Amino acid sequence: xxxxxxxxxxxxxxxxxxxxxxxxxxxxxxxxxxxxxxxxxxxxxxxxxxxxxxxxxxxxxxxxxxxxxxxxxxxxxxxxxxxxxxxxxxxxxxxxxxxxxxxxxxxxxxxxxxxxxxxxxxxxxxxxxxxxxxxxxxxxxxxxxxxxxxxxxxxxxxxxxxxxxxxxxxxxxxxxxxxxxxxxxxxxxxxxxxxxxxxxxxxxxxxxxxxxxxxxxxxxxxxxxxxxxxxxxxxxxxxxxxxxxxxxxxxxxxxxxxxxxxxxxxxxxxxxxxxxxxxxxxxxxxxxxxxxxxxxxxxxxxxxxxxxxxxxxxxxxxxxxxxxxxxxxxxxxxxxxxxxxxxxxxxxxxxxxxxxxxxxxxxxxxxxxxxxxxxxxxxxxxxxxxxxxxxxxxxxxxxxxxxxxxxxxxxxxxxxxxxxxxxxxxxxxxxxxxxxxxxxxxxxxxxxxxxxxxxxxxx
Length: 459
Description:
Elements: H1 156-166, H2 173-180, H3 185-199, H4 203-210, H5 213-238, H6 245-252, H7 257-271, H8 275-282, H9 285-295, H10 308-321, H11 330-339, H12 342-356, H13 360-367, H14 370-384, H15 386-398, H16 405-416, H17 419-433, H18 437-444, H19 447-457
Helix pairs in contact: 1-2, 1-3, 2-19, 3-5, 4-5, 5-6, 5-7, 5-16, 5-19, 8-9, 9-11, 10-11, 10-12, 11-14, 12-14, 13-14, 14-15, 15-16, 15-17, 18-19
């Protein structure tokens, strides 16, 4: 299995490499997703260390003799540690590695080397096809996006505690937080089923009747589960005048094909119309076409290998679509960033800077504007360093005059589903902003709402 991060405060020996440090022989492996319904370890549920899929996982480097390769996704130790070496020990952020050789895909019984890209014609395609038409073995669904499961865990005590907290006069908000803030998607579904079975009541409706404002919003987001929460966020982002573009980016960009298909199916079932219909109605022109590519769920799978020739070709296509011509071929850039997997985008990002001595991010900032620029930067940053990108999104919801509370709730709840992911995000946040995520949230929120958000980040 690929390396997993230990819980907070348990880093033995050396820290994982920080962004910009590329160990020779290191390769960013495909994201590791434990299979749905796997047996619990030691009879426990959930498994130790919170090793759930969640769609954000990533392993440490895999040693490949005789090769150097692309930087791994940014990994951060717990928020009280410093992953960076002493001054001069490694290259600074964004510097290319000592050698420019491309890494071979890691061997492994789970991942076959599928999806070698077909030859591409320069300048011809308006939509650059993904390697192998997507390529690779499909990702398993993230936890909460697959079919319903029965887990070996007794939800009755939690269901009873929730009912007691809301029954009669007044509400015990502390119990609601204690019971709900630390559960994974499968446990939430088990609690809702037990609540309905024991009391013939709907947990979400009871929470709505007993709580209010952002505390209610956070609890409802949790009991909805990640899939339905995504679906309702999308609907609210497009309902009424204007479009909440940040919400569309958060929910739709960087998702696996499997999860995207689940989101589209749940949206159709919930609102009785295709998600594509509503997105087309709210976006326009080339930004609409960009999101149609995204909704097409045609990304290369995480298991698709990095092919050096394909990376070189994508780099040249990006150059010719931006800096290498008068005007910009927006749709070609959108297509490449929407149909390559994260490993491939990281490789493209590194190779572009090596070849042209310019960061791809800066090229996008210069050549694009508006929602399309923000969406492309989201896709690039999410692939290059998922955890640091999440940390900056959380800060974005709190920065400036006033807190964007709805955005903060949505982002905190999204990331809280995977404990390991949250630990990495907290480490990244500490590294970037020199303060803990929990203390920042405490300063921006209050009351039970603030306590719920802090509980979700597991301070």
